[in-house]
Inverse folding.
């Protein structure tokens, strides 16, 4: 159980740091240029955003734990890249298709999601190393 909690917290921390790099640094000018689309900083619901990232990290780690039978760094990376592909396409290009955001923003959201998924998969795999943890918790 300790490894699961550590994996969740580590994925959450990594994703939060990467979100800061992507959204706070790389896309800062793009957000300013499209400020009419976003809440002013004083009205942003950052607490809700952090809870959403935490819930995503919990789901991400539990999916890896429950559904990836063959654990390991390579399998974690594969899982993370697939997760990042799914979330990145919908976040980046799905949003681009319905909102007037710059293509650059959509591309960065997509690539950022791929990177976050890959990093999350590697972290989950590195911390949840053995199937015995899974077997002890879920009996499979």
């Amino acid at each position: 159980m300790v490894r699961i909690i550590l994996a969740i917290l580590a994925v959450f921390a990594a994703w939060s740091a990467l979100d800061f790099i992507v959204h706070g640094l790389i896309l800062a000018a793009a957000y300013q240029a499209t400020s009419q689309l976003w809440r002013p900083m004083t009205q942003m619901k950052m607490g809700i955003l952090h809870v959403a990232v935490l819930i995503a990290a919990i789901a991400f780690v539990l999916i890896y734990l429950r559904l990836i039978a063959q654990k390991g760094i390579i399998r974690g990376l594969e899982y993370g890249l697939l997760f990042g592909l799914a979330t990145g396409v919908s976040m980046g290009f799905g949003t681009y298709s319905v909102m007037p955001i710059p293509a650059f923003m959509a591309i960065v959201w997509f690539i950022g999601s791929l990177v976050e998924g890959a990093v999350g998969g590697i972290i989950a795999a590195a911390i949840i190393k053995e199937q015995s943890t899974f077997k002890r918790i879920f009996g499979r």
Notes: Residues 73-98 form the longest helix (26 residues). Residues 37 and 100 are 8 Å apart (CA to CA).
